[in-house]
C-alpha cells in the first residue's frame, strides 16, 4: 500500500486523474487528515513508484510551475507589474520547451520533466508515506535554480521584444511624416533582399548606398550598412511586392510589420520581369 498526502484539493484531484489514465482499475481511498490535508491510500500492488512519480511530475507542471516562475520573477528579479510577470511566465514557458535552451538548463536530463522526475525519485522513501507538499517545499532547490536561469532568459527575450516594438513605433512614425519617393518596389527574397524598380532594373549595392547615405537613417537606429530594411525606407515606395517561397521569413515579416498594407507577398514565379538566376 502507498500512502500519499496532498495539501491542496485541486492537486489530489489532478493526481488521481493522471493515475486513472494509467490504470482505470486502481483502488484509491481518499480521506481528510487534520494534520496533512488529503490522504490517499493506493492498494494496487501493480502500481509502480515510477508511475507515482510520473503523476507527481504532471501535478507539479500543472499546478506549481507557474507559481514558482512568478515567485522568481517577483522576488529574484523584482518585477511587480502583473502583466509583465504574466508575459515573463509565457516567455519562460517558451524557453523551457525550446530545444536550443534545454541542454543549457537541464544538462543530460534534456527536459524539465526528466529533471523533476530525477529530483523526486532521489527524495522519495518508498516504504514511508509521501508528502507531495514537503517534496516541493524542501527538495526542489535544483529545479528552482534552473527556473531562475530560465526566467532570466525569458526576461532577456521580453526586453528584446520591447526594444523591437520601440523600433517599429519609431520607424512607423518616421514613415508617416515622409512622402513616398517611388511608386513600386519589387523585392526578391534571399540571404539579403534584392531590389528592382518599376521597370525591372536591379538596384546595385553602390546605388543603394549612395541613396541611403543621404537619408537620416540614424534617427531610427539604422545605417547604410543594413541592406534589407534601410533600402526600403530610403526608397520609400508606395507599393512593395515581395517574391519568394517563405512568407514567414524573418526579414519579410519585419518588412510587413513596418509597411503593413503596402506590402504584398507573391510566389517567385509571379516576378514580372526576366530573372537571371546563376
Short précis:
The protein is an alpha/beta fold and 278 residues long. 53% of the residues lie in helices and 15% in strands.
Tertiary shape: elongated
The residue ranges in which pLDDT falls below 50 over 5 or more consecutive positions are none
Strand content: 15-25%
The major pleated sheet works out as: 4 strands, mixed
Terminus-to-terminus distance? 73 Å
Number of helices: 10
Secondary-structure element pattern, one letter each: EHEEHHHHEHHEEHHEHE
In terms of structural class, how would the helical and strand content be classed?
alpha/beta
Counting DSSP E segments of at least 2 residues, the number of strands comes to: 8
Helix content: 40-55%
**Integer average pLDDT:** 92
Rg, alpha carbons? 28 Å
Order of strands, main sheet, comes to 2-3-1-4
Features:
single chain; 278 residues; four-stranded mixed sheet; 8 strands; 53% helix; elongated
Structural description of this entry:
The chain has 278 residues and is α/β, with parallel strands linked by helices. It has ten helices and eight strands. The strands form two sheets. A four-stranded mixed sheet has the order 2-3-1-4. It has a four-stranded mixed sheet with strand order 6-5-7-8, covered by helices on one side. Strand 7, helix 10 and strand 8 form a beta-alpha-beta unit. The chain has helices at 9-22, 49-75, 82-97, 99-106, 112-123, 132-139, 141-176, 205-213, 229-235, 250-259; strands at residues 2-6, 28-33, 37-42, 130-131, 182-188, 194-196, 237-244, 263-267.
Topology:
Layout: E1 2-6, H1 9-22, E2 28-33, E3 37-42, H2 49-75, H3 82-97, H4 99-106, H5 112-123, E4 130-131, H6 132-139, H7 141-176, E5 182-188, E6 194-196, H8 205-213, H9 229-235, E7 237-244, H10 250-259, E8 263-267
Amino acid at each position: 500500500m502507498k500512502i500519499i498526502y496532498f495539501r491542496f484539493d485541486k492537486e489530489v484531484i489532478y493526481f488521481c486523474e493522471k493515475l486513472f489514465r494509467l490504470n482505470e482499475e486502481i483502488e484509491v481511498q481518499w480521506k481528510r487528515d487534520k494534520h496533512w490535508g488529503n490522504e490517499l491510500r493506493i492498494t494496487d500492488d501493480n502500481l509502480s513508484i515510477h508511475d507515482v512519480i510520473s503523476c507527481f511530475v504532471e501535478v507539479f507542471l500543472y499546478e506549481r510551475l507557474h507559481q514558482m516562475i512568478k515567485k522568481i520573477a517577483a522576488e529574484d528579479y523584482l518585477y511587480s507589474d502583473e502583466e509583465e510577470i504574466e508575459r515573463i511566465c509565457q516567455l519562460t514557458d517558451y524557453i523551457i520547451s525550446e530545444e536550443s535552451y534545454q541542454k543549457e538548463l537541464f544538462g543530460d536530463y534534456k527536459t524539465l520533466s526528466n529533471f523533476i522526475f530525477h529530483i523526486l525519485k532521489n527524495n522519495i522513501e518508498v516504504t514511508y508515506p509521501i508528502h507531495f507538499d514537503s517534496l516541493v517545499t524542501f527538495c526542489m532547490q535544483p529545479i528552482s535554480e534552473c527556473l531562475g536561469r530560465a526566467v532570466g532568459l525569458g526576461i532577456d527575450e521580453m526586453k528584446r521584444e520591447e526594444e523591437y516594438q520601440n523600433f517599429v513605433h519609431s520607424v512607423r512614425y518616421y514613415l508617416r511624416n515622409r512622402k513616398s519617393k517611388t511608386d513600386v518596389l519589387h523585392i526578391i527574397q534571399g540571404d539579403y533582399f534584392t531590389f528592382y524598380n518599376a521597370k525591372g532594373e536591379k538596384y546595385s549595392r553602390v546605388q543603394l548606398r549612395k541613396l541611403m547615405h543621404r537619408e537620416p537613417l540614424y534617427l531610427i537606429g539604422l545605417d547604410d550598412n543594413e541592406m534589407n530594411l534601410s533600402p526600403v525606407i530610403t526608397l520609400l515606395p508606395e507599393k512593395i511586392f515581395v517574391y519568394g517561397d517563405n512568407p514567414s521569413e524573418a526579414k519579410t515579416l519585419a518588412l510587413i510589420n513596418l509597411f503593413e498594407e503596402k506590402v504584398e507577398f507573391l510566389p517567385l514565379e509571379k516576378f514580372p520581369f526576366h530573372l537571371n538566376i546563376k
